[in-house]
Design a protein that fits this description.
The structure is a single chain. Helix content is 42%, strand content 21%. It is built from 11 helices and 11 strands. The strands form 2 sheets. It has a 6-stranded antiparallel beta sheet, sandwiched between helices. It has a 5-stranded mixed beta sheet with strand order 8-9-7-10-11, sandwiched between helices. The longest helix is centred in the middle third of the chain and has 31 residues.
Length: 362
């Protein structure tokens, strides 16, 4: 679990490890979604029965059908104890009372003879459950197995907590706090990967750089709170337009600069979306529209091997759009290929666009 990069990978590693440790033929990890009142299965591993999938899209069960995860646990904790695992068998017998008829029916339906269920507790609250089963005819889990499952559930909970902390750290590291969009660091990483794909397979990589007009005026005349609202509203518009192109990354580079990074769609598709962005930004009741520059490897802009060059091209196009107060995007390479004024501006050593002057890593 420590090596997992996502919650799904972490749950899969836990289920596999617990299944092997307890000698089960099948294991699953489910999460209690309190707001929906459901136990949602995150992962199934081992011998899957008909209808079971390793990573189910929507396998969930009303939590009231499995009251142990709620009432049983709280009753145990009220007495000062901890959450203990228990064993269910296909014949319906359980050491501490009658079994859950739904679990018993599921065991029989899927050809399993017994299971051990252990609550997963995170931050003092029931988070979900660990479930391990054996085939019909194999030895039934005993009290020692249940005690071991309780320990394994605690180890699983610690791993889940670590994964959640890492996921939150990654989210904070790659997300702009004000708008919720990706930040510059996320763009850098995605663009590096995209250009590797472009150089290897010829994938079209397009960058749309946007400079929000009028932010300083709004800040000076109406206050920074209103300016922040303008940034948030434009961020929503950018996200909406980016969603038109599957897989496009919408990001705030910093201050009043934003971008879209698209990998795969044609240059024409990206330019069309950039035009839509200009139109929608002009309709915002705050600000003065947006200056948009586009650079795409699908246009005649010359070889692009580095993120630095693509950024310079998009920035130069955006610079010309701002200077001309253009209501539509300026696109690098569309006014004469390598002799396009935008391409020449990006290549001129004596003039560096604003993004380049900020000394990005490339």
């Amino acid at each position: 679990m420590a090596a997992a990069h996502t919650p799904r990978e972490s749950a899969h590693a836990a289920a596999q490890g617990v299944r092997q440790a307890l000698g089960g033929s099948f294991a699953a990890i489910s999460k209690w979604e309190r707001e929906l009142g459901k136990l949602r299965v995150l992962v199934n591993v081992g011998e899957l029965a008909e209808g079971e999938r390793e990573f189910p899209d929507d396998e969930s069960y009303p939590v009231h059908e499995f009251p142990e995860i709620v009432g049983f646990l709280h009753e145990r904790w009220a007495g000062g104890g901890g959450p203990d695992a228990w064993v269910e068998t296909a014949d319906g017998e359980r050491a501490d009372g009658p079994g859950n008829h739904r679990r018993v029916a599921a065991l029989r339906r899927r050809g399993r003879g017994c299971c051990v269920v252990a609550p997963i507790v995170l931050h003092g609250r029931a988070w979900g459950e660990l479930y391990v089963a054996r085939r019909a005819g194999e030895p039934v889990f005993g009290r020692a197995d249940a005690d071991f499952a309780t320990v394994l559930a605690a180890v699983t909970a610690a791993g889940i907590a670590q994964t959640e902390r890492l996921a939150e750290a990654r989210r904070l590291a790659f997300t702009d706090a004000l708008t919720g969009l990706a930040n510059r660091r996320a763009v850098d990483m995605r663009l590096d990967e995209a250009l590797e794909l472009h150089c290897r397979d010829g994938a079209v990589v397009s960058l749309v750089v946007c400079d929000l007009n009028g932010l300083k005026r709004v800040n000076d005349s109406r206050g920074h709170a209103v300016g922040d609202r303008l940034l948030e509203r434009f961020g929503s518009v950018l996200s909406l337009c980016g969603a038109i192109l599957p897989g496009t990354l919408a990001a705030r580079l910093g201050g009043d600069e934003f971008c879209l990074l698209a990998v795969g769609p044609s240059a024409d598709e990206v330019v069309k979306v950039a035009g839509e962005l200009c139109d929608r930004a002009a309709e915002l009741d705050l600000g003065e529209g947006v200056a948009v520059g586009v650079a795409s490897t699908g246009d005649p802009i010359g070889p692009v091997y580095t993120a630095r060059r693509l950024f310079r091209l998009a920035d130069a196009a955006q610079y010309r759009a701002k200077a001309a107060r253009a209501g539509q995007p300026v696109v690098a390479g569309r006014e004469g290929g390598p002799e396009d004024p935008v391409v020449r501006l990006a290549d001129a050593p004596e003039r560096q666009p604003a993004t380049e002057r900020r000394k990005f890593r490339r």
